[in-house]
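Let us practice reading a record.
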Amino acid sequence: MSELSSKKRFAGFDILKFFCAFLIVVIHFPFPSVFGQLVGALIRIGVPIFFMITGYFYDGTVRRHREKQQIIKILKLTVAANIGYFLFNLAGHIFKKDVGAYLAESFSPVSIFNFLVLNDSPFGNHLWYLGALLYVLIIAALLTKIKRLRLLIYAAPVLIVVELILGRYSALFFGSPLNLLITRNFLFTGIPFFAIGMFIKRLSVPKNPAPFFAASVVFYLLSVFEYYLPSIANFEAVREHYLNSTLLSVSVFMIFYIVYQNRSISKAELLMASIGQKYSAWIYILHPAVGQIMNSAFKKLGIFPVYSWIAPVAVFCATTALSVIVLKLTKLAGKKTRSRK
């Protein structure tokens, strides 16, 4: 989501996955009030950092000749997640007695095009990440074969600029905001951040994290400004990445990259690293379903306004517990299948 010269650095990135998984939960189940808005300026770094971590480790994947295995792994996860959410949504529409409309919309030509070309799953909006990651890995593998992988690094700055023009600030250039699917995909989100991770891997590691802590504070404050900018300047903006969330993603990544080479790991950090390593992908996949069920339950109980203040934490914890169960069941099913062979 891996070969490192240091176990501490490995733990650092796994802890970073833990925090990013939580931030992604907050995207879909935000805190209320102004506090939620202030956190909203931070949460956009989650998915970019996941792409960056995958890009950082990609050289090791190539050295071990595991490109194909990685693609197959993500393909299986993508197929399983989409089937799972198709069935989950189907159950809800059977209850609502509008299965026909659901099937017609999910398998319409537009939905199929968006799914195959723009990574937009008709069964779960968040599943775009898996499709985008799959396409990025396929492109990276093809470029590796022809020894042109560095093209991704050269393309990244251009794609980031175009993403801002076609995405967050498209209304300023085209009169009205463009569909976010144009930029929320493998090309304008996946490749740039994957390439940034690859680029960082090729650099010598800085020893002082202080500049990146300072940069993170500055870029966070500027992200808050960007969050409110559309209402201040009176234009409509696409909700995806900001310019400063890109810079903030890099700064936060560098903090974890540097700090965990030179410090011991506490028991709490080891627990977070374990969750980040083993369960972050499952947390990403499962949290919308878990959160939807929990939201419905607390609304029926009439205490949703109170619950909303702890919803992100509650959904994260519940999804983590479910992820442990799902992973164990998956491993058990795999063992039984192999024993039959």
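A brief commentary: The chain has two domains: 1-40+266-341, 49-263.
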